[in-house]
């Protein structure tokens, strides 16, 4: 039996829709895999009552099928489903890394990304890599149709998760069909700024690069109190604030000494909107890790 810890992730980061992602130090899923004649799945932990254990309907079942690696798979969820923190991706990433090792399939971490993404398609309807890539590789990742680029980065972050449910399918339905040319130019500039900031471990550049005028405003309508939370975080010292993945988690970049103040400001702002929330004071972290 092998045990794999796969981290939560934050995708998009505002300007990098369906492309950018980062691994977070916390929270994480823990997945245990053991060889078996056929795949079975057991789920415990955060939101486990909402996660199907039928291998045909669970991300890890799709991964086991793709790798031709049947197993008894036990998932301990540390990442709430429908949180915008890559919950389903973390399980798929952990299963891909663990089953690849258990069955000695010989895939590299980069080669496991599209396999884990097929698992993501089970719940989101499409095989996107922006969450599974950082969960497998760690750091800051840029997912393209022809592969993934990863960069080690060290940026302090606050992830604030409100008690609101926003499904990936709902969040995709509100994405605009197009954008004006000036919005495209602005987004390219912001994405480039963010990428340079990651390479330099510069929270100020990363924060400036998070701004997005295309997708984020539409998704913000699904999150009660988002505008006030954004403003409160910036006032408390955040260098940039945006929606994590499909939401409802709100992610803020900041300097190390400001994480506590930013977390408190975001929690207080959600509370003033009548929404309970919890905050993770975290940073960009490592990818999936195996244990015997």
Automatic annotation (TrEMBL):
Catalysed transformations (reactions): L-homoserine + ATP = O-phospho-L-homoserine + ADP + H(+)
Domain called GHMP kinase N-terminal: residue spans: 59-139
Chain positions recorded as ATP binding sites: 80-90
Domain GHMP kinase C-terminal: 197-269
Enzyme class: transferase
GO MF annotations in UniProt: ATP binding; homoserine kinase activity
One Gene Ontology biological process: threonine biosynthetic process
GO CC aspect terms: cytoplasm
Compartment(s) where it occurs, according to its Swiss-Prot or TrEMBL record: Cytoplasm
Pfam families: GHMP_kinases_C, GHMP_kinases_N
Keywords for the protein's UniProt record, in alphabetical order: Amino-acid biosynthesis, ATP-binding, Cytoplasm, Kinase, Nucleotide-binding, Threonine biosynthesis, Transferase
Role according to the record: Catalyzes the ATP-dependent phosphorylation of L-homoserine to L-homoserine phosphate.
HAMAP family hit by this protein: Homoser_kinase
Entries under PANTHER family matching the protein: HOMOSERINE KINASE, HOMOSERINE/4-DIPHOSPHOCYTIDYL-2-C-METHYL-D-ERYTHRITOL KINASE
Similarity remark: Belongs to the GHMP kinase family. Homoserine kinase subfamily.
Protein name listed in UniProt: Homoserine kinase
Originating organism: Salinirubellus salinus
């Amino acid at each position: 039996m092998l045990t794999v810890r796969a981290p939560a992730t934050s995708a998009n980061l505002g300007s990098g829709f369906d492309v950018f992602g980062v691994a977070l130090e916390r929270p994480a899923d823990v997945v245990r895999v053991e060889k078996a004649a056929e795949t079975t799945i057991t789920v415990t932990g955060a939101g486990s009552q909402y996660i199907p254990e039928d291998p045909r309907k669970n991300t890890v079942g799709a991964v086991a099928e793709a790798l031709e690696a049947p197993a008894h798979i036990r998932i301990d969820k540390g990442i709430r489903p429908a949180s915008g923190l890559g919950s389903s991706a973390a399980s798929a990433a952990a299963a891909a890394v663990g089953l690849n090792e258990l069955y000695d399939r010989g895939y590299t971490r980069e080669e496991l990304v599209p396999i884990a993404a097929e698992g993501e398609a089970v719940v989101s309807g499409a095989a996107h890599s922006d969450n599974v890539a950082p969960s497998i590789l760690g750091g800051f990742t840029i997912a393209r149709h022809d592969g993934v680029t990863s960069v080690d980065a060290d940026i302090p972050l606050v992830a604030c998760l409100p008690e609101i449910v926003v499904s990936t399918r709902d969040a995709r339905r509100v994405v605009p069909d197009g954008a004006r040319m000036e919005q495209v130019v602005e987004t390219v500039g912001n994405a480039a700024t963010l990428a340079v900031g990651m390479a330099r471990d510069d929270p100020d550049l990363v924060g400036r690069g998070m701004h997005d005028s295309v997708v984020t405003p539409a998704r913000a309508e699904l999150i009660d109190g988002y505008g006030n939370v954004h403003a409160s975080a910036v006032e408390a010292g955040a260098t940039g604030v945006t929606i994590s993945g499909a939401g409802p988690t709100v992610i803020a970049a900041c300097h190390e000494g400001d994480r506590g103040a930013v977390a408190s400001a975001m929690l207080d702002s959600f509370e003033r909107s009548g929404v309970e929330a919890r905050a993770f004071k975290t940073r960009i972290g490592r990818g999936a890790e195996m244990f015997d």
